[in-house]
Amino acid sequence: MSTRNTPSVVRRRRVSALAMGVALVTLTAACSSQKEGAPSAGAGGSASSESCSGASQAQAQYTKAWSQTATEVGLSKLTPVQEKVCQVDTSTWKKAPKSGSKYRIAFAAQGPTNSWGLTSEEAFKYEAKRKNVDELYASANGDATAQVDNISQLASQDPDAMVVVPMGDGITGQVKAAAAQGIPVVLCSGRLGGDSGAVSTVTRQYELLGTMYAEWLAHKIGEKGQVAILSGLAGVPTAEFQKAAALKAFAKYPGIKVVTTQYTQWSPTTAKKVAANLLTKYPDLAGIWSDSGYGDLGVVQAYTEAGKKVPPLTGDANNAFLKAAQKNPSVQFALSSFPPEMSTKCLDVALDAAQGKPVPNFLNVDSKVFTNQQKDKYLRKDCSDNLWVPSTMPADLLKRLKLC
């Protein structure tokens, strides 16, 4: 995470991807976010058990994601974590645009601190222009404290709706205040704890990822041996909730011993140093559970330079790691993308809420899951290391961002 910067709340201004430094794969990968507890619809509707319309279809879609993921990585079964999914009535928020002829959607973003953050924002901007939406923008620069100010300043401009990429639980009060002001808030690529007041949460389910990675690794190593857990940033829920799910899954296997839990900062450079220490202290590791493709890149580099076989790995899917794995065909892995372009789905939900259309209180973002056996299908040789794969972004946007 970056140190705090003075928050900037302005009309969207963007320089090129190279100017933002996304060509450096050593930058921190993945966005910080927080786990939401019981579903909350905020001021615009109720997700209570007494009023849970559309639950059957939405719940079935959520459950299907778990069974599909199990099939894709060759597992017989994954048991879904219970998640109450409902349609929220947002009719009390229905309104014409408050200012001018366009709806104004505020975007409290992570900031372009890494390739994931920049891609998320550019995808949002692209979709906003396509749908004739006026965007208000604030960058947290990876800092939860800065985001507190960002949300307050965005809310003071009275947008029709707001999308927030949560950087930590400390922003809950500002999200509640925005909702109380009559602004429907959509949490994007992350969650908040308790009753945040948000009308909807749009993200990839952390427990699904953490559990799937652990179960695949347990199966791959024959349910026995030493395992290291390499997580992202200490205290950041995107890392902590996946790690917690992994530990719960590994606890079912008496033959597996988690010998160490360490943090890689979602950085290949840091992960390489961590892995070099693992080689010395735990030379007999059977597998490495990781939540990051960039972390995996550092692991592969450390083991390769030491002339050692890389243990089976897990993590999110980026082009940099796939290129490294292609050079070392013996590397076995299971990956799932945490697509930055999910921000477009967040925008769609926010726009629906501003127009009074029903929205889901929780929208699980489906994403491809694959193993080393399918790496050639997902590797993009023609694209930058900073591409998150598989990408669903338009070709012209990928080209403009110098990703492909």
3D structure, described in words:
The chain has 404 residues and is an alpha/beta fold. It folds into two domains: 8-51 and 86-204 and 339-366, 3-Layer(aba) Sandwich (Rossmann fold), CATH 3.40.50.2300; 206-336, Rossmann fold (3-Layer(aba) Sandwich), CATH 3.40.50. It is built from twelve helices and 15 strands. The protein has helices at 55-72, 115-130, 144-156, 172-180, 206-220, 237-250, 268-281, 293-305, 319-327, 343-354, 375-378, 395-400, and strands spanning 8-11, 87-88, 104-109, 134-139, 161-164, 185-188, 200-203, 225-231, 256-263, 285-290, 313-316, 333-336, 359-360, 362-364, 369-371. The strands form four sheets. Strands 1-4-3-5-6-7-14 form a seven-stranded mixed beta sheet, with helices on both faces. Helix 2 crosses helix 10, helix 7 crosses helix 8 and helix 8 runs parallel beside helix 9 (319-327). It starts with 7 loop residues before the first strand and ends with a helix. The model is unreliable at 1-50 (pLDDT under 50).
